[in-house]
Write a structure and sequence with these properties.
6 domains; 37 strands; Ubiquitin-like (UB roll); 43% strand; alpha+beta; 4-stranded mixed β-sheet; 18% helix
Length: 757
Amino acid sequence: MKLKSLITFFFLFYSMLSWSSEAFIVKDIRVEGIQRTEAGTVFSYLPVKVGDLLDEEKAATAIKALYATGFFKDVQLKAGNGILIVQVEERPAIAEISINGAKEFEEDKLKEGLKQAGLSESRIFSRSLLDRAEQELKRQYIGRGKYAVKITTTTTPLERNRVAVNFDIKEGKTARIRKINFTGNQTFSDKELRNLFVLRTPGLLTWFTKDDQYSKQKLSADLETLRSFYLDRGYLEFDIESTQVSITPNMRDIYITVNIHEGAQYTVADIKLAGEMPVPKEELGQLIQLAPGEVFAREKLTESIKLITDRLGDDGYAFANVNASPVVDQEKRQASFTFFIDPGRRVYIRRINISGNERTRDEVIRREFRQMEGGWHSTSKINLSRQRIDRLFYFTSVNVETPPVADAPDQVDIDVTVEERPTGAIMFGAGFSDRQGLILNASISQNNIFGTGNHLSLQVNTGNINKVYSASFTNPYFTVDGISLGFDIFKRDLNTRSLSRVGTFATDTMGVTARVGIPIAENDIVSFSLGAENTDIKTFPDSPQRNKDFVEEFGTPTNNFPFTVSWARDRRDSAIYTTSGTTHRLFGEVSVPGGDLNYYKLSYAQKWFYPISDTFTLLLNGEFGIGGGYAGKPLPFFKNFFAGGNNSVRGYDLNTLGPKDERGLALGGDRRVVGNVEVLFPVPFMKDDRSLRLSVFMDGGSVFNNQVKLDEMRYSAGFAVSWVSPMGPLKVSLAQPLNDKPGDDLQAFQFQFGQNF
């Protein structure tokens, strides 16, 4: 800074040497020496106008103002016969910027960094700007572990007072973490503590994760993880005394040393509550996770404070303050905690404000709210409202804040900000096997038609196996109480002759269905439907004998009036990126007397999401189905259960598991059992991306006749990717059957893709 001021003073002094005139009235102003700069630009910065009295002080001010623009490297003022002549020498402009030797970064990304540092084409060139840009390039490379990077900058003068700037980069080798040492640890080994860190020495996957490259931000996060590890195990006196990061002279190897003080392990001696308690003391005491006699854990202490704060928030105390004050007995190695409670003022909701919904109507969002305007603030109701909005699956993100109202200490607003996602979809499903080749299907739907929250879908499938033409409409809020009403009309043609491993038959079905859904609890809904179907059944010479027997006995066509009852419960924390919660679905279907068919089907499915950690989520899925006939009639073969494929047991061809005829053709069954164990986790370096998720899984299941035989179950394991892409949802799985038997049809690779609009 001092050097810059000295240079400015020198130029001002030098410029003033050319100023030797006495003070005079400016009659005219001329600008000389400009090539690119407009004269008007000079006049706009010049603090002297025609008619002004120009003296030495004002001349100095004028020179300083023109220097400050950065456009000129020399400014002189001359006078004669009342005319002020401004003589300037422009700084060169940057004509082009070239970067050579860059491999770690794309050239466009580096140029963007230079632009942010002030260096870009068409801008005025200066040496200080060039130095700053060079430092910005080095910063980007050091952030990638390229500590040995060398950058050589050259400038080439061009015609019309322009310059070309070239950066020649020698990136050098990436520095790797060679060792992480700990000193002062006695209870836990270096290996145990190193396993807590994201930073690590080079390993099998570090070429991809880059975790063997030093990052100050990652080290800070790792040190906080280390601190939490000790405090959650009772080490109240734990302290990180110092951290040393050193790099070898060749800029290739990094060594990290963490000096810690463990201290003694403390247990909890006593727990007390103090302060003002608008909620019964006994109820608040039950929320405290710590208990006398157990080892202290900061995680439990933090959770206790959160639970108490949320409970007070349910009664309107939105700004409750809860602090846990410790009393430490170093001799006994015990700590007592007193939870001081300050509930603050009780507040109520003034207004609910919604933003970000350009397509979805406000009422569609408001009807999901369980926190009402004018009511006392309730933390649980606000959280439930956010979850219900999220479960609509109309939005990629739902953010809820409760800012206080200015000049009204007993009021808060609820600000809901949503980011809409495409709710229409053209879905494509596909699989490939050596027997069936490519299998395709498609549908088009809009889950939020015209922003009303109503659902409309049309399905057209013209494949060799399935031909489907259907239309479906659902109004989820036919009444203000949330009773839904829906209708379906469809024509389904099924011909299994193209399936080499499934018993051949063909059905042409036309029907209509009316549906009603009644919410019986916050997360529970019971649905009823009644339909009418006409099915024309065809068999072929190579059809299984039982199919022929069924047609001979019941004829073709057949009329059926299916009545269904279902119960569904959804307690997931999010429909977009689920990490915890459960879903249940109980479904029953029975043919109403008066038709040609007498059958029933009952199925139950449950999903359980459990957060193993902040990164990993465990998903357990179980499904069971049973069916049969009544009044002396069997379960129609075309109503059988099937298994195998992307939505049941991956690794096996679609609908090929279970009973087969003497030719090995799948017949389906009246029992179905499917189970899945899956661990979901984000993509490394993309943990904040809620659209992309990886998983490892193990599937099991099959279909049976009359009784379930566990020894006939089929199992598979594999890897899957799910991505809510801009083009639509994409699911890919690669599975390996674990106990396939001769005659099983395998399908290792499967994917499902949807086009959003």
